[in-house]
């Protein structure tokens, strides 16, 4: 009987250790896929993505800001970073971590015969985040390796597969392939994800079809597909016959400054299409995690943007300042009441008589500002403090607690961007029209500026473009991520007139004399006045992109360098597409 009993027990109890999940056992239901998606969101908050360096690289690349500490971000500001600089690899690393998780989710879902609605929501978010990752990789590094099949690699090293296009040595050939994939991912995400309205509480902080549509329009415009982009932007703005909006209802918040404050009353508001979520200061943990892992249960889960922007005297690292050009641009046009543009208050931290009694008054954190106590970003090099993404104007804190402690969500795309992009597309397609002017005026009216009129621009598309590119956009989005990407898509590095213009915009004064911080500067005096400098004087063709880190190239023989690695000019690609650079209109 004993022998019979033993030989009959062929079945064994199979147990899965929940602490040792494998790719085969995990991710086969909506709950587990949701955990994967949360991990992908977490990678967007790392140091090389939007937690610090990745965000600030593009701020520096624009003509509205400069590196006042003259260390750390200086080669990114000067657009001459070396391929041996490890920092230039951090964004590459972070976005491939994101892509790895997204590829895992898509591989699981695409193997299911009838995925549920919950599974498809996870799938749509993974596609959006993968599209976002590749959009950033392409616009930073030009020719990143494209891989979307999780089964094609067994490690993150394998994920950095090949960026060679067979028979074509032009890194822009790979750029086009990657951007094709971004378009495909975002298009599918637009169909799978609910709108912010339909998603309800679920949609707060998550990618929605509106976020996917907004970014899809951005990608199309990066490729000068203005007609296609305008159709998407109109779908975001317009109501259907039933009074509903396809991608959810968006509108400008009444107070511009509410876009740059932390707390449930301000974040994920009706103007925001997509933002990066950080914990408010009173909810954060204690661990600053600078590694790409960030798995501590006590992680602060904040960003270091405030530390980068905040003046040294107020506890910050004093890294990045607004340019005098941006400040003077604000000062050049008063509101209908004769006051300063209120957007200046939330963009640049200077004392102005107009701010007495306005919002929180003339404050720098809890310090009361006066005409005689000019606060500069860096005590050695001066600079106009950037107030965005900081508590500079709220008076809530005495000074910055440096590190990953900034709890203000980064609004990466706001409805005002939809409006101004739509106006730009209309101008590119049809020239100045009343429809384009009306869209611009929606944004201007919140700032209480006088309406523009069509008669001011007549049939001059170049003039209206100048107004959008060098007046409306810088005043609405000054010192935010995205200006560097605009300079790329507009081709301003490939035109002598535009290159001269951004050199003028990015001229600044390095001085310990705080009284000079607000003064206009003159690019023609660079080289004559030893305190003056312009970042773009150091730019060389090809270096509008970051180089691919040399160690990454050494470790992977399937990778080749880009135009920054090789010092090659991208103007032939730009003009070969029949794209044009609009001439400067004074």
What does this structure look like?
By secondary structure, the protein is mainly alpha-helical. Helix content is 41%, strand content 5%. The protein has 23 helices and nine strands. The chain has helices at 2-8, 30-43, 47-51, 53-61, 74-77, 87-110, 117-141, 156-159, 171-192, 196-199, 209-222, 226-237, 305-309, 324-331, 342-347, 415-430, 434-446, 461-477, 483-490, 496-505, 550-555, 563-566, 571-576, and strands at 65-67, 272-276, 320-322, 363-364, 367-368, 384-385, 410-414, 507-509, 532-534. It has a three-stranded antiparallel sheet with strand order 1-3-6. The mean pLDDT is 94.
Radius of gyration: 25 Å
Intertermini distance: 101 Å
Percent of residues in beta strands: under 5%
What is the count of β-strands?
Answer: 9
Number of helices: 23
Main sheet: strand order: 1-3-6
Helix proportion range: 40-55%
Strand-pairing-aware structural class: mainly alpha
How is the main sheet built?
3 strands, antiparallel
Globally, the shape reads: globular
The residue ranges in which pLDDT falls below 50 over 5 or more consecutive positions are none
């Amino acid at each position: 009987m004993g022998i019979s009993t033993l030989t009959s027990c062929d079945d064994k109890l199979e147990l899965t250790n929940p602490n040792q999940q494998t790719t085969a056992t995990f991710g086969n239901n909506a709950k587990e896929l949701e955990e994967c998606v949360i991990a992908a969101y977490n990678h967007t908050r790392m140091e090389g993505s939007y937690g610090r360096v990745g965000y600030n690289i593009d701020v520096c690349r624009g003509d509205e800001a400069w590196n006042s500490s003259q260390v750390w971000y200086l080669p990114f500001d000067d657009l001459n970073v070396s391929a041996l600089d490890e920092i230039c690899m951090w964004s590459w690393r972070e976005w491939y971590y994101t892509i790895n998780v997204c590829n895992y989710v898509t591989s699981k879902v695409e193997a299911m015969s009838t995925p549920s609605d919950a599974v498809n929501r996870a799938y749509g978010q993974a596609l959006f985040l993968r599209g976002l990752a590749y959009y950033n990789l392409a616009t930073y590094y030009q020719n990143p390796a494209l891989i979307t099949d999780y089964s094609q690699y067994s490690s993150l090293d394998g994920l950095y597969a090949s960026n060679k296009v067979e028979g074509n040595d032009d890194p822009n050939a790979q750029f086009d392939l990657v951007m094709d994939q971004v378009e495909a991912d975002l298009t599918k995400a637009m169909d799978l994800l609910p709108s912010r309205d339909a998603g309800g509480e679920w949609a707060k902080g998550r990618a929605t079809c509106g976020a996917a549509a907004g970014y899809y329009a951005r990608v199309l415009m990066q490729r000068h597909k203005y007609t296609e982009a305008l159709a998407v932007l109109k779908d975001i703005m317009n109501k259907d016959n039933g009074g509903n909006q396809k991608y959810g209802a968006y509108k400008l918040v009444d107070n511009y400054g509410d876009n740059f404050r932390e707390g449930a009353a301000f974040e994920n508001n009706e103007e925001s299409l997509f933002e990066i979520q950080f914990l408010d200061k009173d909810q954060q943990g204690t661990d600053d995690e600078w590694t790409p892992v960030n798995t501590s249960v006590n992680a602060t889960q904040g960003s270091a943007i405030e530390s980068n922007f905040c003046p040294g005297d107020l506890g910050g690292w004093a890294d990045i300042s607004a340019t005098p050009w941006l400040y003077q641009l604000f000062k050049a046009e008063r509101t209908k009441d004769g006051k300063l543009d209120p957007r200046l208050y939330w963009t640049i931290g200077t004392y102005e008589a107009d701010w007495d009694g306005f919002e929180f008054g003339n404050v720098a954190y809890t310090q009361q500002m006066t005409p005689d106590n000019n606060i500069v970003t860096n005590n050695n090099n001066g600079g106009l403090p950037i107030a965005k993404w900081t508590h500079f104007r709220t008076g809530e804190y005495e000074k910055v607690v440096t590190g990953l402690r900034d709890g203000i969500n980064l609004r990466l795309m706001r409805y005002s961007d939809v409006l101004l992009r739509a106006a730009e597309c209309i101008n590119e397609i049809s020239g100045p029209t009343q429809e384009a002017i009306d869209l611009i005026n929606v944004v201007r009216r919140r700032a209480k500026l006088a309406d523009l009129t069509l008669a001011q621009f007549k049939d001059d598309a170049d003039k209206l473009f100048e107004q959008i590119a060098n007046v409306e956009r810088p005043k609405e989005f000054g010192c935010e991520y995205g200006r560097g990407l605009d300079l790329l898509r507009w081709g301003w590095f490939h035109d002598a007139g535009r290159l001269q213009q951004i050199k003028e915009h990015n001229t600044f004064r390095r001085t310990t004399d705080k009284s000079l911080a607000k003064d206009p500067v003159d690019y023609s005096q660079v080289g004559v006045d030893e305190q003056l400098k312009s970042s773009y004087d150091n730019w060389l063709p090809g270096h509008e992109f970051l180089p691919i880190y040399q160690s990454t190239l050494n470790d992977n023989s399937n990778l080749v360098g880009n135009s920054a690695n090789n010092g090659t000019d991208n103007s032939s690609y730009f003009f070969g597409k029949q794209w044009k650079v609009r001439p400067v209109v004074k």
